[in-house]
Amino acid sequence: MIDTSESTKGVLNNIREAAKDFIALLNKNDKCLIATFDAEVRVLEPLTSDRDALEKALENIQTGEKEGSVVFNAVDKIGREGFVRAPGRKVIVVLSDGKDYGSSISRTDLFSQLEESDVIIYSIFYQTGRVQVDETGAVKQEPEIKQPEEKQPEEEKPKKKKKKKYSITIAIPRDTNTPEEIRLIDKVTSAEAVNVLQEMSDTTAGRFYMSDAPKLSQIFKKIAAEVRQQYRLGFYSKNGDGEAVLNDIIVKVNRAEAVVRARGKYRAKKL
Fold first, then answer.
1. CATH 3.40.1170.20 is right for the domain spanning 2-140+182-231
2. Is the pTM of this model over 0.70?
3. Where are the domains of the chain?
């Protein structure tokens, strides 16, 4: 799933080439789909093992003309409809700056859906905009920019008398943000975007990455290797009342050097 909103215009070519590298890593029996989202969600190529068709779909990726980035709608749609009757492990790789504008599904409803799904989400946050954030979601401090000192004229020349001019002052509308307000909004949305993508991955036992576009190929290689080295554990719930309740899940191993990454919660579907 590739974010094609206006903010990704400058890095779209890099993303396209990195996605091609990911397709080249697929095994013979692996299937992949290509989807993009901006103001709308588009499935350019449904699940297939045909690499030529997938690469052709990538060539058709373009930046959206309408404003919007419906990240929530895209994850919801692909999670529910993209893997219909598809066997095996289901993985979504989301490439986005994480800033959602215009989704019809709320964040709360989306995460409720993810708690019921068997989809694993690997989210890759790539930086757009003017504000930089680190892996914890904290906004990096911007360097202080010193203004050049104004040079004083050596000799002051007599000023010519200027003719009187009339000026009109137009008040700024109340809904117009000042540069400082825009900067503050940018900070908040960037930090929130990191949190959303990271929570998507944590909820589904996936992994969250931060990267600039040139390093995407390395991340794709890590994801391709990792999804082939996972265990799927199943269990029968003791809760037999049929209610769709949220259950805690704790997975432990008896190897000190091992690290467990698994879903922490699971919402059983109400039948």
1. no
2. yes
3. 2-140+182-231
